[in-house]
Amino acid sequence: MLFRVLFMTNLILGLLFWSNIAPEPDWLVQIHMLIGILFVAAIWVVGLAQSRRKAGSIGLFASSFFIGLIIVFVGLNQESLLPTSPHWVIQVIHLLLAIAGIGIGEAAAARYKRGVAAASASAA
Question: pTM of the prediction?
Answer without folding.
Answer: 0.87
